[in-house]
Amino acid sequence: MSLEHKFCALGTEVTVTDGTIISGYASLFGKPDQGGDTVVAGAYATSLTNQRSVKMLWQHDPAQPIGVWDEVREDAKGLWVKGRLLTDVAKGREAASLIGAGAIDGLSIGYRTVKSHKDDKGRRLLSELELWEVSLVTFPMLPDARVAAKGDAPQADLMRDLAAAFETARRVMARD
């Protein structure tokens, strides 16, 4: 089996503080992504128990580590991560700046599927994953959640509301 990637834009619970600390959800349970896959609660449990360190990469590029994840855990909502962007690394400085400006707003997981099955509608349910890395990315696969830099919450809320309005309008127009 090959390495796969799942993209997740993070909601307001994802923050950047002091320009270098990032925390939030890298994966959300029970939410189908744009590829139709859904991660099931508990999918990371075995991997996190047996895990070597989960890498923090830039855009899934193994040649561009940009920080370290100090905490990676499952809770009822999904896979929560907390780590530090390394500003001694050029890409780490760039990432901190891009996140702070709102130009980068997503996280994505790199993993190997250990167990999955199809539901009654043919969608893939991912029940066990071997987590390799969590990347900062430009284009997340779960569009309903976004990264917000600390102190930018009102603007992030406005942008999220606008995105929801555009999505609703797109759906209405697609039906006509």
From TrEMBL:
Report domain Prohead serine protease positions: 17-150
Ordered alphabetically, the record's keywords are: Hydrolase, Protease, Viral release from host cell
> Record keywords: GTP-binding included?
no
Q: Which GO terms describe its molecular function?
A: peptidase activity
Keyword Amino-acid biosynthesis set for record: no
Q: Name one GO biological process term.
A: proteolysis
Matches recorded under SUPFAM superfamilies: Herpes virus serine proteinase, assemblin (SSF50789)
Q: What protein am I looking at?
A: HK97 family phage prohead protease
Which species expresses this protein natively? Yoonia rhodophyticola
Q: What lineage is on file? A: Bacteria, Pseudomonadati, Pseudomonadota, Alphaproteobacteria, Rhodobacterales
